[in-house]
Amino acid sequence: MSAPIYDKVALIGLGLIAGSMAHAMRRGGLAGTISGFARSAETRGTAREIGLVDEVAETAAEAAEGADLVILAVPVGAMGAVAAEIAPVLKPGATVSDVGSVKQAVIAAVGPHIPDGVHFVPAHPLAGTEHSGPRAGFAELFDNRWTILVPEGADRAAAARLERFWTGLGANVEEMDAAHHDLVLAVTSHAPHLIAYTMVGVADDLSRVTDSEVIKFSAAGFRDFTRIAASDPTMWRDVFLTNKEATLEILGRFTEELFALQRAIRTGDGEQLFDYFTRTRAIRRGIIDAGQDTAAPDFGRSGRTGGQK
Amino acid sequence: MSAPIYDKVALIGLGLIAGSMAHAMRRGGLAGTISGFARSAETRGTAREIGLVDEVAETAAEAAEGADLVILAVPVGAMGAVAAEIAPVLKPGATVSDVGSVKQAVIAAVGPHIPDGVHFVPAHPLAGTEHSGPRAGFAELFDNRWTILVPEGADRAAAARLERFWTGLGANVEEMDAAHHDLVLAVTSHAPHLIAYTMVGVADDLSRVTDSEVIKFSAAGFRDFTRIAASDPTMWRDVFLTNKEATLEILGRFTEELFALQRAIRTGDGEQLFDYFTRTRAIRRGIIDAGQDTAAPDFGRSGRTGGQK
Prior knowledge:
The structure is a homodimer. By secondary structure, chain A is an alpha/beta fold.
């Protein structure tokens, strides 16, 4: 094992992502010491109990003090306040990064608090499960997944070091600008999540079909939606509020296309439906070829998918 | 192993469902002989090559002749024509059933062709994968899944025998009337599939986000949609055209709710979003408790979900 990439890493927030980072840092020997902080006393207690990090601090500033890398792993809506709180103790030459699902809003909220001489390199690991909390993490979460770095003019050496760190956590790294990141994620993640939440809500509302029927017969396609829709509500509220524009744009296009397909159903235009459904198969093939999924068939018992940001 | 439930079973259509039935019948010793027919010569050739059934016939009537149970396993839109073709050779006392995802339309199309003295007991196994064709089947497909019987006044003894057959294939069986079946499936399967197809189509259309980006970053939620949207285009075209009313009703409600959530995003109503997302978590919990999925987290590599009718 080579030398740690950072002597001290501070995790602000101790949920699924930060917890998985702690496990993966230890696996890879990437950090000398890991400190951590969570706003909830219960989460801090659990983190101490399971030894999630080396030191659980009582404030974000205490955790961040002296750290060479500080990771903001709180909901996007809370990042600005956390950045303001830790700003005074940040070590010169340190790197501040985050794991937020939205980048333009994080940069706007966090950027102004970063002192001169501290590097801010936003990041977004595209990994997750529908579970949350300090016990949900595991070392393999980032393996062969993508982490998007959004350096936006940050110091190149600091960005390259953070890239080595993420590679050490198991991820593939790609750089992108913030606006493009937010659009790509609106398509691949944010809009699909809102749609899944909506469909699950509709099923729950429909009085002529009981909840128990919905649950019992969920394997018929609906189950995948419920898994996506089980993700952390606070995190997702913040995603939609902070990536408003791109999400609404994609949802607008989605609605337009859905209306076209609804009209095809209503008018009995089988050819349009068949052509549409044939086209979407090719995309699936591409995802399997890209190694982001397997072609193994599912028959509804493995339950190993979804809920990723 | 006990005696077969039917001496001769005929499978009209040799795709994923029929193929899985053949494997599961053999596993359970449920049939004396299995005959099969598929419209495509290529499919018949493959079925012979892999020994999918005991005898591959050259016409549907040849396969159905003398059978104690005939299963119509063709797209819903083709069921009426197949029923007309086999009607003259159906053995008195035989049972005709199907595996269509829609029940009212199948009853309307098939029912009139069924001769006196032959029992028609429609059925729908809620199982599938995104794969299709004669090589896609496997014996475990129906294990612990639900099969819905829609006897609608059929002979009770014939319905009870078909129920024993499906139980032998591994399924849990429940009876329902045709209209309710079509509504329940519109919620749990048909609307989710159309929504998934639509979202995948939108991603493919968006010129500012490349297909390769969509594919690369699909693990962020979108991947589940592509799996659902990779299912057989002919089958799904027919589902939407024949369960038009219920599907359009559910899609109408879905659009209504989606608009409400879009408005909440636009106006920044975080509370509404948070409450909505919290409610949908409970449904997920119910599905895990009902044994239709597991709580195991996924991190995007197992690929074992979806595409079920």
